[in-house]
Structures are given as C-alpha cells and as structure tokens.
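request received
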Amino acid sequence: MERSITKKLVNGKLVRLFVEAQDTVTSIKITGDFFCHPEEAIEDMEKILLDTTIPISVAAVQQKLDIFVAANKVMLVGITTEAIATMMKEALQ
Amino acid sequence: MTPIIPTTVTTTTPIVSWRIIPLTTNNAAMNMAIDEAISEAVAAGSSPPTIRFYQWSPSAVSIGYFQSLHQEVDAGVAVSKSIDIVRRRTGGGAVYHDTNGEITYSVIAPESMFPKDIIQSYHVICSCIISSLARLNITATFHPINDILVGGRKISGNAQTRRSGILLQHGTILYDLDLDTMFSVLKVGQEKVSDKLIKDVRQRVTRLLDHGAFTKEDLYHALVAGFTDGKQWGEGVMALQEIQRARQLVHEKYSTKEWNGRR
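response:
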C-alpha cells in the first residue's frame, strides 16, 4: 500500500513523499515545490532509495543520499537529504 | 570642474549585449518551448543572452518540475474552462497564469554571468523586478528563496534552472488576481475552499492593482526599464532556428502526456 507524507520544511519548501514498502522500499516518489539542480538528479535519488531495508535508518539513508549529492555536485534548494530520510521513516511508521 | 576623460579603457569583462524580446502571447506549451529553444541557442553560442516578456493565452497552469500533476491540478476543471496545463523545466510551485492577470519574464544567459550561489543569483535577477516596481513608486523586497514581496505580501514568484552552462530564470509579476478561477483549477488542500482560505490568500498575495490605478502597459514598460537598466541591449526577435526548435519541442515535449504527467 502506498503511503504519503506532506511537510512544509522550516526555511524550505513543501515536500510530498509517496512510498511503498514491504521488507524493502519498492517505490518512492519525491514531489513538491523545491528545487534540485540538475533536476533529473531527483529521479536518480529515488532509484538509489529503492530496496532500502525496513525499518528505515535515517542516518543510513541520509548518508547514501549525501554521497550521491556530493559525487554528482547536486544542489538542493528548499529540501535536504535529512528531510527526505526523516520523511521516509515517518511515512512508513 | 574639468571632466575626467579616460585616455585608455581597460576591462576584464567583455561587454555583453542583451537581446530583449518584447511582449508576446502564446499558449503554455509554446511559452515553455520557447524558453528551452532559446536556452539551447544561447548554449550553442548562436544567440545572445536574452530577456523575453510574455503572456499566456489561453490562461494556464504551470507546475514545477518536481510536482505531481494529479496532486496539484484539477485536470477536469482545466479542460472545462479551457485552461492549459504545462510542466515547467524549473522547480517551484504551481502557478495560475491568467491571460490578463500577469506578465511573465525569462532571463536566459550563460551561468558565468551570475553568482554561482543559487539564492544570490535569484537576488540579482529579482533586483530587476524590484527596480521595475520602484519606477511605479512601489517598494518591494526580495524574500529568499525565490519570492518578491510588497508590504509583506507576495507579488512575484520566480524559478530557475541551470543546464549546459545556461541559467534560465522565469517568473511572474501579478497584475490582477482571479481567485475563483485559480482555486477552481489548483488543488489547494483537502479542505473545501472557504471564505477564510480566500481571505488568507488575499492577505498573503498582492497585485499591482492594489497599489495604484496602473495599466498593464505601465507594468510592462517598467519591467523593460528595470531589466535593461545598466545593460547594453537591443530589441530583437527569435531566430528562425529558435522558432523551428520551439515548435518541435511543443510537439515532442510540452504538449505530451509523457512530459506533463511524468510525476
């Protein structure tokens, strides 16, 4: 079953996350009015998050995203990797 | 006093001449396609840095690159009211572009002409709008990340992308506001649109008409002056190659379900 969570981030933008999982994450979509440069990187980040084991470790998910962001010089504006990781966990609780 | 006349001029920055494309009116898909076609031409070096001004006819909703179409827009209402829907290549929120309610601009230029820091670059370009409004005796301020406020209320939203070394920033300056149509086509939340919600939005948003008996032409002329101030520029038109590419992008991208419904 798909679960969703919506948050207006402090000093940031509105993020709406849709996630499906059983033992692992089977689908995830990160939507909202934030900015990400280059834009396509958000789809790569979604792919990275597939197969994440349940229960979610916020630190592990954030680290995985941080490595991708740094390696690909991705710029996030109005959204953070920490927010994505935290929202994933909250959506699946 | 004797004027100081330099005998030699040295400069480290080449003088850039901007192309200003005057106000045009297009449908939503064409407006977004033109931005992309010009971006490609500037990236290829075949077109100069460009500022264009435009309107949307029919009225349209544009959604940000990362937004879910289904979550943001009531497509049925849009169809029934002949309102276009298009996904932008920039992030940010959903915007209702009323044909008579706003002027939109795009700045398309090499990234190297702007601060690397995203917020700073928003500030630089938004300063042109603030300067435009000052010409109408309206005091506006930049509100990070990407808004311009008058009296604490939003009058302009802006969005930016950077690809292939080119910065594209587009944004709207609100002239009038048709809240009934806007709320009917935008999904603003689970709750029914209430008088309180409309009042709340009215308290958060302002339009040029709240600040004087201006015409849309007044706004347009102020914008041209504000955006060109301090720049070397000339009025121009789209090159044939840009027009052809824009038409191709309308057909292959901005009018397709694959693009507009991709999230």
